[in-house]
Amino acid sequence: EFINTYARHPHYEAPTGDQLNAKSWQTEAPLRMLLNNLHAEVAEDPEQLIVYGGTGQAARNPEALLKIIEKLLELDDDHSLLVQSGKPVGMVRTHPEAPRVLIANSNLVPHWANWEHFEKLKSDGLMMYGQMTAGSWIYIGSQGILQGTYETFVACGEKHFNGDLKHKLLVTGGLGGMGGAQPLAATMAGATFLGVDVDPERIQKRIDTRYIDKMTYDYEEAKKWVLEAKNNGEAVSIGLVGDIGNVLEKLLHDNVIPEILTDQTSAHDPIHGYVPHDLSLKEAKALRQSNATLYKEKSLKSMARHVGFMLEMMKRGSKTFDYGNNLREFAYQGGEKNAFDFKGFVPEYIRPLFCEGKGPFRWAALSGDPEDIYVTDKALIEAFPENKHMIHWLEEAKEKIAFQGLPCRICWLGMGEREKAGLIFNELVKSGKVKAPIVIGRDHLDCGSVASPYRETEGMKDGSDAVSDWPLLNLMSNTAGGATWVSFHHGGGVGMGYSQHAGMVVLVDGTDRAERCIRRVLHNDPAMGVFRHVDAGYEEAIKTGTDFSLII
Ligand code: NAD
């Protein structure tokens, strides 16, 4: 019945409630999360099946999507579905504790791993770009990135401003799927915020979801608002429509130097993402179609100019960092030879957390009932009374975050904590304290799941930045451990040729089977981060490894 209704009227919204459409929760869960990824409140462009991050898709095309849904509805506990770059290509014989879906997205043999080759394959209908959590069906809207961004801004405040961002101005570009988390993260951390995006619709979306406070098309008005708010120590967020490079140029001219400067435009994709400063949105769209080579040239030059202004801001005192979009590399290619003078956010602020196996643990309530998330929030607050930082986050999140699609939560947890949380959630499902099963997953941006030399593995202590054996081992561990679906992608975050990464989602349905899978997967997954950083020689990781008997 579900498939008939869906085929007549494709609607991207996860089914909710405690009744199954598929044969078991093991397949109902990926079905709901796939459709949730495309929910109008979650996805940036559901019509194109684009979830976030430039062109990150959930499925290759509408036919492939329909077929995935059909197969998920058919699948039993002794088979697993294979998905190749967003298209279902076969079923293999497995067993009840194996992953139900095995996903590989956007992978290319290294010599061919560039946007040009990928685009050719894409236009021939042979591939799609999976980003990180788009093609692996665990994107949860802007909240997903919100806590990571909040952690980063707080860590930046602690490192440079004695832990206090009041009276501090943070400026950035890009308010899209991921970048849209910046305004709320900044104000939660106490700063005054100015975000610039060339596309007014993107800013409007952040207003609708309460991630940003005010919006204007007028530079002078935005400047007046932020300077007033900064002087009064108000944590207010302003969205300004415009090109980020042009706005930085004006701010420099007016000697408005933010304390913190970063960027989350979709710079990882110089053709379908970044908009050159001398084109309107409409002109950009047309030029992409008519002359992609010229577009790329303009885009690289524009990024070089943009980074040039960032370097000048840095010289004048802004704490400046790259926020994982590969802006420096493309600016370098566009002619800014000093582009790498500022560092990425991981070596600056996040790596110490990775050494403790900490990363973006997230979960979604398949019931669709927000109350289920509040029950899990409460359970975590009771289970980790010593973790004041996490408790502050959960309380703020409950108050300030509007859910998008299925209710969900993110909260960075480390070695030991993830397994403990997973087992608590399993008890909540078993005892009926939540109304339906939960899924637990994470971003591919995690401690032991990604090789990305301009982002997660930039500047590794032993020089092993580009070694991608680690995400492959992560994939294998999570497959062997019994995650409910696993994925291996290429090019997430920083684009084709620059990263390889693995994902996992595990079902929490209150069964003994789930308990066994949780004990394995939620132990092994953060342990991979500890192994990776122990091997690279980080003291903090060696300490965590010793505490959890992980050193061999
Ligand atoms: P997105 O495509 O949804 O949004 C990008 C936004 O940038 C769009 O709204 C677009 O209008 C805007 N933009 C493009 N060129 C511009 C310009 N010249 N001036 C002003 N605005 C411009 O992408 P997203 O999901 O928000 O991701 C942003 C970037 O961050 C991507 O490169 C992504 O790979 C990267 N990323 C970072 C992290 C992280 O943890 N730091 C995680 C995931 C993705």
UniProtKB/TrEMBL annotation:
Pathway: Amino-acid degradation; L-histidine degradation into L-glutamate; N-formimidoyl-L-glutamate from L-histidine: step 2/3
Urocanase N-terminal domain location: 13-138
Domain Urocanase C-terminal, residue spans: 352-544
Residues binding NAD(+): 53-54, 131, 177-179, 197, 202, 264-268, 274-275, 323, 493
Signal peptide residue numbers: none
Active-site residues, Swiss-Prot/TrEMBL: 411
Family: Belongs to the urocanase family.
Protein name in the entry: Urocanate hydratase
